Amino acid sequence: MYPFWEVPGFTSALFIALIASFHILPSHLATGAFWFNVFIEQKALKENRPDFLEFIRKYTLLILIFCFVYGSITGVGIWFSATIASPRSLSSLIHNYVWGWATEWVFFVIEIVAIYVYYYTLGKIDVKAHLRIGWIYAWAAWISMIIITGILAFMLSGGKWLVTGGFFDGFFNDTYWPQLFLRTALMCGIAGMYAIIAAGRLEKPETREAIVRLASVWGAIGTLLTVLMSVWFVVKMPQAAKDLGLGAGLPYLKHLLYVAAGGFGAVFLYFLLGISVPKVPGTYSGILMIAVLFAGIFATEGFREGVRRPYIINGYMYGNQIVASDVPGKGIKAELASMKENGFLSSLYFLPDEAKKSSDAGRLAAGRMIALHQCGNCHSFEKNARLRSLPVFLDRIGMTAEEDIAVFLDALEGYAYMPPFAGTDDDKQAAAAWLASICK
Question: What is the pTM for the complete model shown?
Answer without folding.
Answer: 0.91
